[in-house]
Amino acid sequence: MIRNVLGHTLDLLGVAIIGGRYAVGGTLPAEPLLCHELGVSRTVVREAVKSLVAKGLLVTGPKLGTRVLSTEHWNWFDPDLVRWQSQQGLSRDLVRDLQELRRIVEPAAVRLAAQRATADDIAGLETAYAGMRSAIEDGGDYVTSDLRFHQGLLTASHNRMVQQMGKALGALLRTCFEISTSRPDGPARSLPLHRAVLDAVIAQDPVRAEQAALVLIDGAALDVETVLNSRRKLPSLALPAPVLKGNRPR
C-alpha cells in the first residue's frame, strides 16, 4: 500500500515538473504544503523527492531548498521520465535524438552480435521475428515483438554496457517503434529488413550485419520523420501498444 502511494505521488510530481508546473530554477512548495496538496505523509513526499533527485529532475541542499533542474540534467534513460514525458507529449527533438543514438549504438552492437550470439540468443531473436510476422499476417501486437527483437540484438552483443543501455532505452525504443508502425505499410516493409539483420547474425557475418542494421534503422528514421512532419499526435506510453489488423487473406 505504501509503495502504491509512493509510486502515485512520484508520478504526480514527475508529471508536474515535466509539464512545467514548477519552473526550471524554481523551488517546490514547502513540504507541509505538498503533503496537504497530495494528501500524503511527509515520509512519502521525502521519498518521492529523493527519487526525483536521483533521476536528475531536482536538486536539494541547505539554504537551497528543493529546486527544479534544467532538462540537460534529466536522466533520459529513466523509464519513468520517458513515460511522464510521453503523457505530456513527446517532443520531436527527443524523438530525433533517439534516432541519432540508435544509429550510433545499434549497428556496432549488431556487429558484435554477429560475432558473439549464442544459440539461445538466436532462438530468442527468431521468436521475436516470428511474433512480428504473425502480427502483420494475422493481426496483433507488433510493437512488443519489435522491441524484443532489438533488445535481443543488444543482449546478443554480450557487452554489459550495451546490454544495460538496451534496458534503459526500452521505453524510448517502444515510442519510436509505435511511431514508425503507425504508417500503414511500415511493418510490412520493415519485416524483410529485420530478416536481413537476423540472417547476417546467424551467418556470423559482422560486416553484413552492421550494414543491414543501418538500412533497417535508416528506414525507421524515414518513417518517423514522415510521421513527425505530418504533425500527427505522437503515442503515449500510458496506453497499451496498438495492434495490427493483419493482412493474411481470410
TrEMBL record:
<keyword id="KW-0804">Transcription</keyword>
<dbReference type="Pfam" id="PF00392">
    <property type="entry name" value="GntR"/>
</dbReference>
<dbReference type="InterPro" id="IPR011711">
    <property type="entry name" value="GntR_C"/>
</dbReference>
<dbReference type="InterPro" id="IPR008920">
    <property type="entry name" value="TF_FadR/GntR_C"/>
</dbReference>
<dbReference type="Pfam" id="PF07729">
    <property type="entry name" value="FCD"/>
</dbReference>
<feature type="domain" description="HTH gntR-type">
    <location>
        <begin position="3"/>
        <end position="71"/>
    </location>
</feature>
<dbReference type="InterPro" id="IPR000524">
    <property type="entry name" value="Tscrpt_reg_HTH_GntR"/>
</dbReference>
<dbReference type="InterPro" id="IPR036390">
    <property type="entry name" value="WH_DNA-bd_sf"/>
</dbReference>
<keyword id="KW-0238">DNA-binding</keyword>
<dbReference type="InterPro" id="IPR036388">
    <property type="entry name" value="WH-like_DNA-bd_sf"/>
</dbReference>
<keyword id="KW-0805">Transcription regulation</keyword>
<protein>
    <submittedName>
        <fullName>FadR/GntR family transcriptional regulator</fullName>
    </submittedName>
</protein>
